[in-house]
Amino acid sequence: MQVEFRHKGCHLEDSSKELISERVDHLTRFLDEPRNVEVFFSENNAKAKEQRYLCEVTVVSHGYVVRGHSTGMELLQAFDKVEDKLRHQLERLKTKVLHRSHPHHRDAKVVTTELGEDLEVKIAKSKSFKVPKLDPEEAAFQMDLLSHSFYLFSNVQTGRSAVVYRREDGSVGLIDQEAD
């Protein structure tokens, strides 16, 4: 497993890096050989002392991305909070993966919805990334792991772009591109 450390506006000592690497290794026991773990620390511009440092940890393993972030008065305190969040998310991931492998859970149904109106929004940031080819259930699962409200993917069933999103009632919606 490769643990990559990045920091901005703060310094992380080698002893802290070793300690964090050991704890991340212990955390990733829920996964089969994670490919990459990125630990990012930065000094936060928040006025509150308890939010002085920001820690973000991203774990990439076999098509799953699990991410957690938190703040703290010290670097290791911020990491402690992230570690708790990641442990919870990784336990959920393991449970869902095991649960999904059961034969009677493979034919889950997805609610299809249409987006009716365009919203006019000023674009503050632009980002590009590879769009994974997934079925809607896997995309909803990835969305939950990342704690995002939506997830863009290429639908393997239709071969077109699609988005799953969290609805106000807590259910998951699917927006699928129409055929030409």
Structure write-up:
By secondary structure, this protein is an alpha/beta fold. It has 2 domains: 2-100, Ribosome hibernation promotion factor-like (Double Stranded RNA Binding Domain), CATH 3.30.160; 109-176, Sigma 54 modulation/S30EA ribosomal protein, C-terminal domain (SHC Adaptor Protein), CATH 3.30.505.50. It is 28% helix and 29% strand. The chain contains 3 helices and 8 strands. The chain has helices at 14-27, 75-100, 136-146, and strands spanning 2-8, 36-43, 53-61, 64-72, 133-134, 150-155, 161-166, 172-176. A 4-stranded mixed β-sheet has the order 1-2-3-4. Strand 5 (133-134), helix 3 (136-146) and strand 6 (150-155) form a beta-alpha-beta unit. The longest helix has 26 residues, at 75-100. It is globular. Mean pLDDT is 81; it is low at 106-119.
User: What order do the helices and strands follow?
Assistant: EHEEEHEHEEE
- Tell me which CATH architecture of the largest domain applies here: 2-Layer Sandwich
Shape: globular
Q: Based on DSSP secondary structure assignment, what is the total number of beta strands?
A: 8
| Sequence of strands across the biggest β-sheet | 1-2-3-4
Domain tally: 2
Question: In percent terms, what proportion of residues is strand?
Answer: 25-35%
Count of separate DSSP helical elements: 3
Return the average pLDDT rounded to an integer: 81
Over the alpha carbons, how many angstroms does the gyration radius reach? 19 Å
Distance between the termini: 44 Å
The percent of residues in helical segments reads 25-40%
Which CATH top level class of the largest domain fits? Alpha Beta
Q: What is the CATH third-level topology name of the largest domain?
A: Double Stranded RNA Binding Domain
Structural class: alpha/beta
